[in-house]
Amino acid sequence: MNYLSREGAPISKELWAQIDSTVVKAARSVLSGRRFLHIFGPLGVGVGSVNIDNADTFDEVSKDGFITMKGRKYIEIPTIYDDFSLFGKDLETCEKSGYPIDLSKAMASAETCALKEDKMIFFGNEDNGYEGLLTASGINKIKRKDWTIGENAFSDIATAIELLASNTVYGTYALSISPDLYMQMQRLQAGTGMLEIDRVSKLLDGHIFKTPVLGKGKAVLVCSESRNMDLVIAQDISTAYLEQKALNHSFRVLETVLLRIKRKQAIVVFE
After folding, report:
1. I need a surface site. Which of 46, 214, 225, 270 has the fewest CB within 10 A?
2. Cα–Cα distance for residue pair 180/81, rounded to 1 Å
3. pLDDT value, residue 1
4. Helix crossing, 196-203 with 152-166: angle to 10°?
């Protein structure tokens, strides 16, 4: 049986292709975390859990003929989803007329799932025990100055990079910021003839990512090398058929993903 229940759906292959293309395109336009995190997978929907290793303490421990893995834990890979419907009358009209079906609802569900994924990456899910980049215990934190004044943003970010380097955290640095902080850096720096955002971009080799899920006044710098963190994907974003009810068709956009933080010293949050 197909996990996505497509074999029993009264939907043509052509329409499924349109739905798949639309959903993936809409999700990609929103996703932020995947732009800097390494992807581990897709592993397949049958993979329900994965190990998270603490890179600083992970080791094999042997005692009295009994071997265990120190610094390793297993955690369930959660499912993120959002549902939408297509009206039976609309499908019939499009089939008879030859006009393409309006997939705005599929796009909206894909965008909703993408935002849920990013929210999990940055904030985790406290109710279910998942940590995010801004909420994990043991991460570095820096008091953020007023980024509307002078070169405070550049100075704060340079300090964060120096902090990571002092902790022997080297590699690709990526900055994720809320839209308001991003706009605060769109101004000329005195004596440089450059926008502050351009100076910061040069500092980070262009790895600056703006995302609405951060709300306001939030920023986080990470060393995104795979030894420090990655994004586990079991089932990548797909669309499943749920049911036909009242002559209309219900669908579910879903994915199973998990942020793995292996080295918390590779994260700096600006408070």
Report:
1. 46
2. 28
3. 47
4. 10
Pick the CATH number of 140-223 from 1.10.10.10, 3.30.2320.10, 3.30.457.10, 3.40.1080.10: 3.30.2320.10
**The two three-digit tokens of residue 222, written as one number:** 């990470």
pLDDT digits (tens, 9 = 90+) for 165-191: 999 999 999 999 999 999 999 988 777
Q: Is 99 left (phi over 0), alpha (psi -120 to 50) or beta?
A: beta
- The tokens 């994720």 sit on which residue? 176
Give the pLDDT band of residue 219 (cuts 50, 70, 90): very high
Classify residue 126 as exposed, middle or buried by CB count within 10 Å of its CB (0-12, 13-18, 19+).
exposed
Tokens of 196: 């502050």
* Alpha-carbon gap, residue 79 to 99, rounded angstroms: 34
Domain map (residue ranges) of the chain: 13-132+230-263, 140-223
Query: 132 to each of 45, 135, 143, 235, how far by Cα in Å?
Result: 22, 5, 19, 20
